[in-house]
Design a protein that fits this description.
Blueprint lengths: L2 H12 L5 H20 L24 H21 L6 H17 L10 H12 L7 E3 L2 E4 L1 E2 L6 E7 L2 E7 L6 E4 H6 L4 E3 L21 E4 L3 E3 L2 E4 L2 E5 L10 E3 L1 H4 L3 E5 L4 E5 L9 E6 L2 E8 L2 E8 L6 E4 H7 L8 E6 L2 E15 L2 E11 L10 E5 L1 H4 L2 E7 L10 E8 L14
Parallel strand pairs: 5-12, 6-11, 17-22, 18-21
Antiparallel strand pairs: 1-10, 2-14, 3-4, 4-5, 4-9, 6-12, 7-8, 8-11, 9-10, 13-14, 13-23, 15-16, 15-24, 16-17, 16-20, 18-22, 19-20, 20-21, 23-24
Length: about 425
């Protein structure tokens, strides 16, 4: 398809008087990456350490319908200008250009970070497009045995995709499901390539994804025991991004359709029908696809921390470590592993961690100096397995918003037997 023809074709797709089925053929491919990045690879600047997170100031916006139309027009103009300067491109390359334009205009600030109002803008964009995103349909319940990753206390469960069963990490710190790209290809899953370089500023451990070529895959119904969810996408990553014998990550896009009960001592996971919050549960706030809670450390705070079953230990940002007085210049260093490879970090010790009525003392932690994993609004650390595995966890979630992001929830923690030891954990998302 010649560039001029492609440009006219794209413009036709975005006209208000177009046929819905023609418009729907293009826009889902634009939005797959945008929705995915809102909930898994989102990143914006972190406010000053020690401040109680405030909702970022957002300039006054037009009404949603007006804003959505403006964004559609801007995406069209961006795509036209880029395609006119290109030689003949195939369909995949054209869609990559369109995807990048949509992300830059709808969700990104000039410095490449995610806008504080990115989710609202994406919702307006979707509404203006007139398309219907796939609806997640959850059925059934599950009661399954948890397995441990070798030499670790991170838990995995069997996940069925089509007729095949694979081992997935349970990860509340991931907004979306992730799959080994080779397995996705073996399953012949329909996919949409993501633009090159789009993973460069991802909030994960390691820096090996900068120039990675990857795709978003459309998943068939996926199941855990008798619990199933349809209407999901997954990011494909190479096999070396996962621990040995792990084929993927089960994220909140699946888990949030149920009440999740995780008992580390019994190594048991239950997926139950959603229920109402109970008294004394820890309130959770959705933050660009992850769940956060207010945390006190060494009698200081509150600080906003992500609650992450995929993280091996407590993690704090370097500015917070300095504020707490735990950033020792000669502290022992260690290497940790995540989606983006390995990263060297400092070890630290936290005298006291308190989340509402639950607290723990003398916990190991690491100080993140280079990683972008904490580059989310107001996130100053992560609650990992060395805290969570002291409790049975009962997670409840609100219904997702228009673009599939969970905005609130609760976590009820029940202390486990004092004789139970979670053990050492070596893997970090």
């Amino acid at each position: 398809m010649q560039t001029a023809i492609k440009t006219r074709w794209l413009q036709y797709q975005l006209q208000k008087n177009q046929k819905p089925h023609r418009r729907n053929s293009l826009l889902p491919k634009i939005l797959i990456a945008g929705i995915y990045f809102n909930s898994f690879f989102s990143f914006v600047l972190t406010p000053a350490v020690g401040q109680i997170p405030h909702k970022p100031a957002i300039p006054s916006q037009p009404k949603s319908s007006q804003l959505g139309q403006q964004l559609l027009e801007q995406v069209l103009q961006c795509t036209q200008s880029k395609l006119l300067n290109q030689q003949t491109l195939n369909q995949t390359e054209s869609e990559a250009v369109t995807t990048k334009c949509a992300l830059q205009i709808v969700a990104l600030a000039p410095d490449g970070s995610f806008r504080p109002d990115a989710i609202a803008r994406m919702s307006a964009f979707i509404e203006a497009s007139g398309i219907q995103l796939p609806q997640r349909i959850a059925k059934g319940q599950a009661n399954v045995k948890l397995d441990l990753i070798a030499n670790s206390s991170s838990f995995t469960i069997p996940v069925r995709i089509g007729r095949q069963t694979y081992t997935f990490l349970i990860d509340t710190g991931s907004g979306h499901t992730v799959i080994n790209a080779e397995i996705a290809k073996q399953l012949k899953l329909e996919s949409t390539p993501l633009p090159s370089g789009l993973l460069e500023n991802k909030p994960v451990i390691g820096n090996n994804l900068k120039n990675l070529q990857t795709s978003a895959y459309i998943l068939p119904t996926i199941s855990v025991n008798s619990a199933s969810v349809s209407g999901l996408y997954a990011l494909g990553l190479p096999a070396q991004s996962f621990p040995e014998n792990v084929s993927g990550v089960l994220g909140l896009d699946f888990l949030s359709n149920f009440d999740v009960v995780l008992n580390p001592q019994k190594r048991q996971l239950q997926l139950l029908p959603p229920s109402q919050p109970v008294a004394n549960a820890i309130p959770l706030k959705g933050n660009f696809g992850i769940m956060t809670a207010q945390v006190y450390i060494n009698d200081q705070g509150p600080f906003s921390f992500a609650i992450d079953t995929g993280a091996y230990t407590m993690m704090v940002s370097k500015p917070l470590a300095q504020k707490l007085g735990i950033d020792e210049p000669k502290a022992e260093k260690t290497a940790i592993f995540g989606f983006g490879g390995t990263e060297v970090v400092k070890k630290a010790k936290l005298n006291q961690i308190k989340i509402q009525q639950r607290q723990a003392t003398n916990l190991d932690a690491i100080i993140l100096e280079q990683s972008k994993i904490l580059n989310l609004p107001g996130i100053e650390g992560i609650i990992g397995q060395n805290f969570l595995n002291k409790y049975q966890q009962y997670w409840r979630f609100s219904k997702p918003n228009a673009i599939g992001i969970v905005e609130s929830g609760s976590l009820f923690l029940t202390p486990l037997s004092p004789n139970y030891s979670p053990g050492d954990i070596t893997y970090l998302r």
